Each structure stands twice: as C-alpha cells, then as structure tokens.
Amino acid sequence: MGRLRDVADALFGRRAVGGLDTLRDRRPITVASIGGQQSLTLDLDAEARGYAHSAVAYRCVEAIASNCASVPLTVHRPDGEVIDGHPVERLFNKRPSRLMNARVFKSIVFQQLELAGQSFVWLDRGETGTGPVTEMHPVFDPVDVIVSKPLAQRPSVADVIGFVVRRLDGQQVPVLPEEMLWLRYPAPFDPLLALAPWKAARHAVDMDAYAREWQRSSYANGATPKGVVYLGPMEDQEFAATKAAWRASMQGPEGAGKNLLVRSAPGAGPGSGRGIEYVRVQLTPEEMDYLESRMANSAEVMLAFGVPHDYLAAGTTYENRAAAKATLWSDTLKPKLEIVASDVDRLLLPSDSEEAAFDLSGVDALQEGQDSKANRARAAMYADITTVDEARGTLGLDPLPGGIGQMTLTPYRAQFAPVQGTPSGDEARSWDADFSRLLAPPPDLDAVVSRAVEGALVRLLGTVAPQVAARPTPARLELTRADDAPSSPSVAEIRAAYDDLEAAGRAAVRRLAREQRERVLRDFDRLMAKPQRSAEWLASVQAEARALADEVVLEPPDPEQVPAARLTDMDVATGPAGWEERIRVRDLFDGRYWRRRTGELLRPFVERAFRRGGASITASFDLDEPAVADMLRDRIDELAGQVTATTEQVLRSQLLAAGIADGESIPELRARLQAVFTNLSDFRATMIARTESVGGYNAAAVHAALEAGAVRKTWLATDDARTRPTHRSANGKTVPLNRTFPLTQSRWPADPAAPAAQSIQCRCALTFQFDEES
Q1: 176 and 251: one domain?
Q2: How far is CA 378 from CA 369, 390, 393, in A?
Q3: Which of 337, 549, 580, 689 shows the greatest Cβ crowding within 10 Å of its Cβ?
C-alpha cells in the first residue's frame, strides 16, 4: 500500500501554489480509488451546529474559546529559555494567514474542539507539501482520515497515511499527513476517535429545549387560565351575550389573573339543574417539576463543558466569581491548552531542542495560586526554615550569585549593612540597597585546627612544631608549568587559551543581558499598567524627543572614536551636552545598580583571563599581588562602566527614536527595548567576550613579562581574511616593552585604550624577549 502522497502525485502531478488556493485548486479524487485504503469519516455532529440555540451551551463554548484564544503560544528550549521570534510562535500569535487574525483562528479551533472533539488545520507547506509552514487555515468541511489498515483491525494514528477533505461542492481534496494539524480530545476506547464535551451536554441541552418549547407554547396559547366559571344551562344566544359582556370587562393586560366564564361544567348538559359553580385551575406538581428542571439542565451543561456555575451565573459575589475563574483556568482551560500544545510540538517542532507551550503567566486568575505559593515560600524563609536560594527555587528563580543565598534569612541579612546618605529618587526601587558589603568568609577550619595543634606542640615540646600537612589544593591545568623560568607560550597555546576564555566570556555577558532584559521589561510592563503614570511618562518622552529631533543624530558609533566596549551595531544618539538627561531612561534602567551588577557578573571571566595570561609567562604570577590586583580592579571597573553606559545610551536612543516616530504602539516600543538586550546577548556578547579575552590575557602577560625582566615585545598577527591591514603590517614588528605599536595604536592585542577599529575582536598575540636572550 503506497502513501497518499504517491497516489496524489500520480493523480494530478504538481500542485498549484498560493496560500489557501493551493488546497482549493487541487484536483478532486475518489476515496475508494486510493489503492484499496480504508477511510474513517470524521464529521461534525449535525446537532452541534445548532448549539447556539442553547444560551448556556453557547456561553460555555464562547467562554472556553475566547479565554484560550487570549493565551499566546511560546517556543522555548528544554531549559525554559524562550526562543523569541520563532516562526511557529508568529503563526499562532501574529498572523496564521492572510485571511484571518490569530485571535479568531484560535477561537475557531477551540470552538470546534468543544463541539466536535477535534479540529483540522491545514498547513500550507508550499508545492512539495513538506516545506516550512507559511500559513494555517482551519478546515470547515468534513474530513476523511485515510488509514492503511482495515477498520476491523483497529488502526491507530501510526496507520494514518493522509486525509481527504470533502468540500461542500462534492469534490474530495487529498491532504498529506505533514499538511494537516489534527487536534483532538482523545477517546478512551478508540485511538482514532475524539471525545467532544458537546456529546456529554447534548441530553441536558435537549431537555432544556423541550422545557423552553413547553413554556413558549404555553405563552403563545394564552397561558393557563386561573379559574373557570360554569354558568349552568344557557341558550347559545344568551351565552354569547353573557360572554361578550364578560370579555368587555376582562380583556387586556388588566384582566390578568381573572376568571374565565364557561357555559356549563364538563358532562353537564342543558337541563341538568346545576347552578353557578367556581373551579380553581393551577399547575400540577409534575408540571412544576418540569419547569424547575431547566435549572438542573443548565447545571448539567456547564458540568459537561467544565465551566463553573458561578462563572456564568448572575448575582454571584466577587469572591465566588474569582474562585470560579481560577477553577475554570486550572481545571479546564489549562489541560485543554496543554493538549493542543503537545500536538503542535509533535508536528511542527520535531526537534528535541524546541518545545511548544502556552504562556499562562499573564492569566490573572492563575496568579492567585502563584501568590499563595509565594506567600508560603516567604513564610518558610522568614521562619528560617528554608534558605534564600530554596525559596527562590520554589518560585522558579535562579540562585543568588556567589553562593550568598545558601543560608537562611537571618545570617543572610546580617551580611549587609545599610549605606548612609545614598541618594534615591524612587523609593520603590529595591536595588538602591548596597549589596557589596559582604562580611568576610568564615575561617578555614583545617587551618584553625592546624594552628591549634602547632601551638599545643610548641607548648609541650618547647621547640618549633613540625609542619602539619595541609589539604592539597587541586591544580588547574591551565596554570601548570614545568618551571618558573619566564618564557613565551607557543602560538597554538595562545589560540587555545583565547577560545576557552571567549566561551566563558560570552556566557557571562549573555547572563547579564538576560537579567537586564527581564528586569527592564518587567519595569516597563509595570509602568504601562499604571494609566496615569504611563501616559505622563510617554508624553514626556515624546515631547523631549520631538524637541531634540533637530539636534540629536542617530547613527552607529564610530569605531575610530570609541573603545571596543562602547561599540554596538545599533543606532546610538549623539547631540549637544546635557541632552541625555531629558530622556527619562532612569525609570527603566538604573545605571548605578547595573554598573555594580555588571562588575559582579564579569569579574570571574576577567580574573580568569588575567590569570591565564600571567601564568603563561611565569608560574609565580599572582592575582593578589598589589600591582596586579590594582590593574585588575581598574579594568573591571572600567569595563563595567563602559558596558553599562553603552546599554543605557542605546536604550535612550531607542526611546528617542520611538518618541520621534509617529503612532508607535506600546508593544512596538517594548519590542524596541527588547532588541537592545537581544543585541547585547548576540553581537555585543561575542564582541565583548572576544575582545576582553585577548585584551585581559595580553595585559597580564605584559605585566608578568615586565616583572620577569622582559625588555621587548613582538606582534604576531593572525594571518586570515579577517586580519586588519594594520595588524598584518605590524606582524613581526618589535618595540620596547613600555611602548605602543605605532601601526595598531595598541600596547598589546585588544588594548582597551586603543580605538575600537584596532582592538575589537582582535586575535593577534605577543612574544617577549628577556634579558638573558639579548
């Protein structure tokens, strides 16, 4: 049995191209002609098309579909990091097709799932049917699932070889398995069937319809009279006159609830001798139960769809409705979204490195559960039951850097002292506290015990105590040398060191970018959530931007004028002195905090580059030596300041550009800000990591060589297509150790004091000439 693709290709050859027209223009086929394959027709229950006649059923389906359609789909890596701008995310959240917006598309899909238990979405994959998905279209016609096994043998999803869409004009259009996203609620007893909530609600809907019809007919027929007056035997003419007189006084709304005149009682003919009688008419207990069943039917419909009664019912309290919303999301909507996300993951994201999920972080009803979880974690932390990092882990946050959160709250707080006189214009900012005043680490217990033993032996023996062997310190392979004689490493060793350091530096900068992005976008969202404050802030930015439009220039920085750490491939604003203070970026980006935080995150990487470079010359190189420590501290402070200033400047430039632009929405402004940190984690991360790896390594190597007696240094260029002409010309040139190479304007490769045009991403190296070599 061949695949449906082979049959379709044999039937009509190449297909037309052009969005939805691709599916419409395919030549029809007959299901029975597909090599004897079996088909299972899955059609929408005809009765479900009339679900809107039940107000309760309609409201349940609408509530589920509209709420699910409001949740964006995200694509993330296994570690939870969201992949921004993924094509699948764009299809579901931005533009599934030219004919339909994302909210309507998702709403239709979930309505079909509720009523039919399944939804078919055709994926436009181009002419071959296997290319990338460019558009998605929900299918509204009946669909045949073509399987390669007789139905009596219970075929499964693995036996599906294609689909056939039965169009309303009678044509049957084949679709490949790769072109159909089959979403469904699984049935427990058949792998190819779907279980629709509507099926469980149909009986109650039918009963409710009967009750409504009885009530409607009752009203249409004038309802039930309140009572009957039997007038006894009368001639027709006399009865007509009496009835006419009675109606004249009884007709109209004002006669509601009055009595009805009847000529004689049932079974009493003329001459029966009966006088005037009165009989009261009322509903029987059975009729009363029939009407009251409408409430029970409504409750059963809501139960079938999983919608709490208090979510739809009027007159409920705020607390009851809030609880009902939380129950709806946690018990009904969230599992349904997870089923759909799993099918999207299976067909559209086959790689294990990508996963689809609906982002529920913006659902207010679910945040109450998160708040309760956070309160419990906070209570346990305040009671010194859990450590700070354990409390953060409960909320899905990373541990604090440097291991400072691996303790309970009381000792954690004891580490920090308040800073007197620190200015702050915003009391709500938690980062104005100074976290740099850490207490000294606890003493090494092994050393304390060793000193105590030595002291005791001195007192007992009266002589110098024998040395107590200390615990050996693991040796780092990168620092190991055969001896302490100064020498230059080989070019291959230098290149290997560059590669190792660059990877560590890129990871450090990306972590900084991630932290900055999360906090800045969080503060932006909080600011935009306050209508009055956000309106005032946006108006201020726009007013200042328009006032500065003729004075400020937006362009990439000149690499001949700025150091490497100030370089970016995004436009940066330059203008008259003092213009920066007029664009209020401080509300989103606290430069003082981020300079300190940048230094903390980049310090391990810079220290590693210095240690590696110094140890490449002599094994006695020590980062704690005063001159080295001062040089290292100055470089970290300078680097942190330059990186922070550049990020702040680019953010300010984006706000300025957004203020000048006309009609930009808040999401567009948010995207501008997010692009700054995307750039920091991509282009700037590579540039900073590569430049600082080479610069830090060679700065320490020059210092170590100077201390070891070197007198001259020689420039070694990397000979490839990316090498700058000045660096290639400087190859083999030698200068005194304390001089600058004239062609490269650098003291060493990737010199932070050199222009970015000479230092950025430099891969050159140095060798040294020592006294004994002269």
Answers
A1: no
A2: 14, 10, 12
A3: 689
Strand 227-230 versus strand 260-262 pairing type: parallel
- Taking the alpha carbons at both ends of the chain, their separation in whole angstroms is 84
Place of tokens 């995004």: 570
The yes-or-no verdict on residue 58 having pLDDT over 80 is yes
User: Among 24-28, 29-33, 67-71, 707-711, which stretch is predicted with the lowest mean pLDDT?
Assistant: 29-33
What are the pLDDT digits (tens) for 253-304?
455 555 555 555 444 544 455 566 665 555 555 555 555 677 788 888 888 8
Note down the domain range covering 273. 201-301
- Looking at per-residue pLDDT, the higher value among 773 and 454 belongs to 454
In a domain, 430, yes or no: no
Question: Which residue carries 């490493």 as its tokens?
Answer: 489
The answer to whether residues 145 and 264 belong to one domain is no
Strands 734-736 and 227-230: unpaired
User: Are 570 and 610 members of one domain?
Assistant: yes
Of 348-362, 572-586, 682-696, the one with minimum mean pLDDT is 572-586
Per-residue pLDDT at 105 exceeds 90: yes
Output 421-429 pairs: Cβ under 8 A, ≥24 positions apart: 425/586, 426/587, 429/590, 429/593
| Weakest-pLDDT range from 121-125, 261-265, 500-504, 667-671 | 261-265
Give yes or no: residues 24 and 81 share one domain. Answer: yes
**What is the Cα–Cα distance from 738 to 735, expressed in whole angstroms?**
8
Q: Per the confidence metrics, is the pTM higher than 0.70?
A: no
Helix locations, 349-483, DSSP H: 364-382, 388-394, 409-414, 445-461
Q: Who contacts 660 (Cβ-Cβ below 8 Å, separation ≥6)? A: 545, 546, 549
Contacting residues for 286 by C-beta, under 8 A, at least 6 apart: none
Q: How many domains does the chain have?
A: 3
**Rounded Cα distance, 555 and 573, in Å:** 7
Domain boundary residue among 145, 179, 197? 197
The burial of 281, by beta-carbon neighbours within 10 Å (0-12 exposed, 13-18 middle, 19 or more buried), is given as exposed
Per-residue confidence (pLDDT) for residue 291, from 0 to 100: 55
Confidence of residue 152 (pLDDT cuts 50, 70, 90): confident
Tell whether 588 and 640 lie within a shared domain.
Answer: yes
pLDDT at 126: 81
- Whether residue 246 is found in the same domain as residue 164: no
State residue 467's pLDDT score. 47
Q: For residue 180, is it within any domain? A: yes
Q: Does residue 373 carry a pLDDT above 80?
A: no
Residue reference for tokens 């030698």? 734
What values do phi and psi take at 740, rounded to 5?
-95, 145
> What's the pLDDT at 68?
92
Dig out the tokens for 97 from the structure. 């097709």
8 A C-beta contact, residue 1 and residue 36: yes
Residue 732 lies in a domain: no
* pLDDT at residue 35, rounded to an integer: 41
- Higher confidence at residue 270 or residue 557? 557
- Distance CA(123)–CA(117), nearest Å, equals 20
Looking at the structure, do residues 192 and 232 belong to the same domain, yes or no? no
**Sequence letter at residue 336:** K
Strand partners, 770: 710
Residue type, 56: V
Q: What is the 3-state secondary structure (H, E, C) of 425-443?
A: CCCCCHHHCCCCCCCCCCC
The arithmetic mean of pLDDT across residues 150-159, rounded, is 82
Domain match, 530 and 565 both: yes
**What whole-number distance in Å separates Cα of residue 450 and Cα of residue 436?**
32
Residue 68 in domain? yes
- Give phi and psi for 124, each to the nearest 5: -80, 105
What is the pLDDT at residue 680?
Answer: 83
DSSP string of 17-63?
-STHHHHHTSPP--GGGTTT-EEEEE---GGGGGGGGSHHHHHHHHH
**Radius of gyration of the CA atoms of the chain, in A:** 40
Last residue of a domain, one of 197, 222, 247: 197
